Amino acid sequence: MSIDLVPIRRAIISVSDKTGLIDLGKALAARGVHILSTGGSAKALADAGIAVTEVSDHTGFPEMMDGRVKTLHPKIHGGILARRDFPTHTDAMSAHDIPGIDLVVVNLYPFEATVAKGADFETCIENIDIGGPSLIRGAAKNHDFVAVVTDASDYAELLSQLEANDGQTTLSFRRTLAAKAYARTGSYDAAISRWFAGQLGQEYPQRLTFGGELRQTLRYGENPHQSAAFYTTGDKRPGIATATQLQGKELSYNNLNDTDAAFELVSEFDRPAIAIIKHANPCGVAEGDTLLDAYTRALACDPVSAFGGIIAMNRTLDAATAEQIAKLFAEVVIAPDADEAAKAFLATKKNLRVLLTGSMPNPAEPGLFVKSVSGGYLVQTRDNGRIAQADLKVVTKRAPSEAELADLLFAFRVGKHVKSNAIVYARAGATVGIGAGQMSRVDSSRIAAWKSADAAKAAGLEEAGTKGSVVASDAFFPFADGLLAAADAGVTAVIQPGGSMRDAEVIAAADERGLAMVFTGMRHFRH
Hints:
Layout: E1 6-7, E2 10-15, H1 21-30, E3 34-37, H2 39-47, E4 53-54, H3 55-59, H4 74-81, H5 87-95, E5 103-107, H6 111-116, H7 121-126, H8 131-141, E6 147-149, H9 155-164, E7 168-169, H10 171-199, E8 213-218, E9 228-232, E10 244-247, H11 253-266, E11 273-278, E12 281-287, H12 291-301, H13 303-306, E13 309-313, H14 319-325, E14 330-335, H15 340-346, E15 353-356, E16 368-373, E17 376-381, E18 393-394, H16 402-415, E19 423-427, E20 430-435, H17 441-458, E21 470-473, H18 480-489, E22 493-496, H19 503-512, E23 516-519
Parallel strand pairs: 2-3, 2-5, 3-4, 5-6, 13-14, 14-15, 21-22, 22-23
Antiparallel strand pairs: 1-7, 8-9, 10-15, 11-12, 11-13, 16-17, 18-23, 19-20, 19-21
Helix pairs in contact: 4-8, 8-10, 12-14, 14-15, 17-18, 18-19
């Protein structure tokens, strides 16, 4: 039988994160709550002048084994798990002198933070909490009679409940806390299981678990009729999950998705670089001697599509670049940092979201990519493949020049971040035409050339940027037609994975047009 209002007479407090502990302890003590506690929590409370009973004094059994065994005792778990409406339970409590425990306040050993710091195996093992999850799960199961708090952010609501209900908690509040408690232990165990699988070299263990913490409930998803939320995993990879938002409106689902794509792309480059993204595809990418140079050249690739886009950079945003960005309507700017003058320029654009991450992600770092499908998940490693000049195989009569090689590698690196089928034209370290997401590779080639011609016309140039450029394809040319379309656009060199049964035909077509072509042996499909 569920009971709505349950008084808090006895509490057990055992917290690793002691944020708000003293204020909570004082408030509970002022209400006459008998506080049980352990180790560092008990010491902190006692040092603050709060009456506290050590768990070992309560159980008559000492802590042992370096603190591994302290709350795992019938007098603790019996007091938590006993149903107050079952005579057999209350009789057992009386027979064995087990007082009821009405409130459990526990947060867990910092396992995730320990792993994130790069601690050794034994240190990580010692930061796996055992007693804490047991207390939490027991209290959550018996939430009809016990309140369980696992997050310091809930202390205020707990005290508000006690104030409003004469020292009692409501059933609805206890159920909310119980659900949150199971989510916490679930994500905790997920972090441990995934770490352990990694230690054993099990890339895909028999059971794969995920955990996340709600960062933000979003206004809607990709479309207004879809609901959405943003969860973080605790992974410290620099990006949207670690960024500080300086200004602007709340980030939307599409903003987050596109900003992530932009920042991951721009992290590929060592020189100052800018990536402008629209609908998760780049519409302009460039390297430069300065950010301003890179921005100017990235914008020139497709200034029409850049309107309302995401702008990412791999250097501290400076005032000169910020002044130019402020002239364009953009949704988001993301950078590792920004100087004060740059912040002042962007502050004039009140609705522009500005995110600072502190650092750049490592494009070669391993990780998992997860996509939901009906009834399950597709899981793969992050596409951290990178091609260097030494990996290239020249397959045509003419080898590319040093300048062409630099552009080929640049274009192929951009192509990795373009939806398949992907074609990227580049010249002098900047994209000059991008064709994305077409069912036919030849159509991607043509669309990229058309967009390049339109951009040149808008800029008052006599010829398209594709004249004298190089072209990258994310996968092999199944027929020579895609390559010929690029040749018609004016390219001089080609980079592609190779591996088609018609490679010989494509190579012959390149030779006939006097093109240099290299194979990478690595493709970059992106769906």
